[in-house]
């Protein structure tokens, strides 16, 4: 009896693995990006590195940003070696410091003449539950609030780059975990969660709510914003909470879900495929799908927007100037 049960379980797991692998889509677009500029936050490791490498292979000028200089320089070197594209730049930014984000955005605005694609990819898993010097939950700030600020500050360059036929694209890297997020936006920015995974899930729902409101405000302005769900992809982010459990999780993910290459495909798809010119939508496995119903709650969308503006110290006049610049 035990052997029969074991065989049944193994067959079920094998069937699940085959099903997952069959449904892991790969971007098939051959579109070139010569003459275009792409910025990938966290583009020096994991999914971000693969995304940056793909865009570099297509001929784009690629800027990768992270807070670790050695990782950044090594990532840049790897992208150049694998893509054959020398036009790759590493820049420093620390998303746990809003001052650093502002300096980074100012540098981009002063040194770049265009920005065709912004990939908000950088993030942390669940390394800790504490507040930053900016008065924000660390995970929420790195994964969401800092990217909110960066995106808003870069809108003038994105707007100058985008056209009616070829809008600039903002891609937010969300996650399937947004489906277990809390609906209580007022309670997002605090420490002391009983389950740190909920903080991570909240940050990924925030990126969707943000995309929906920003899409509304940018309607007709030649900039679009959409969200990519990489699925469960085996990256080192799963080791941030517990090394051993993270190692086990990565092994299971590789067996039953996605490699980093597969996890990067939807973001790449949004950067190069015509489908990526829709606005305010959610994509997984290179196709548009519905996010969790919480993502379509307009009260939550507005509440998060107002909260985010206050936390990053922007007001409506600042926003109007940046959108219309």
- Which stretches of 5+ consecutive residues score pLDDT under 50? 237-242
Total beta strand runs = 8
What average pLDDT do the residues reach? 89
Name the beta content range. 5-15%
Structural class: alpha/beta
Helix content: 40-55%
Question: How many distinct helices?
Answer: 11
CATH topology type: Rossmann fold
Broad shape: globular
Main CATH class = Alpha Beta
CATH superfamily: NAD(P)-binding Rossmann-like Domain
Alpha carbon gap, first and last residue = 71 Å
If you had to describe this structure to a student in words, what would you say it looks like?
This protein is α/β, with parallel strands linked by helices and 325 residues long. Helix content is 49%, strand content 12%. It has 11 helices and 8 strands. It has helices at residues 2-23, 46-57, 69-83, 98-111, 138-153, 155-161, 196-217, 243-256, 260-272, 298-311, 316-324; strands spanning 37-41, 61-66, 88-92, 117-120, 168-173, 223-229, 282-284, 287-289. Helix 3 (69-83) links the parallel strand 2 and strand 3 (88-92). It is globular and about 45 Å long. The N and C termini lie far apart (71 Å).
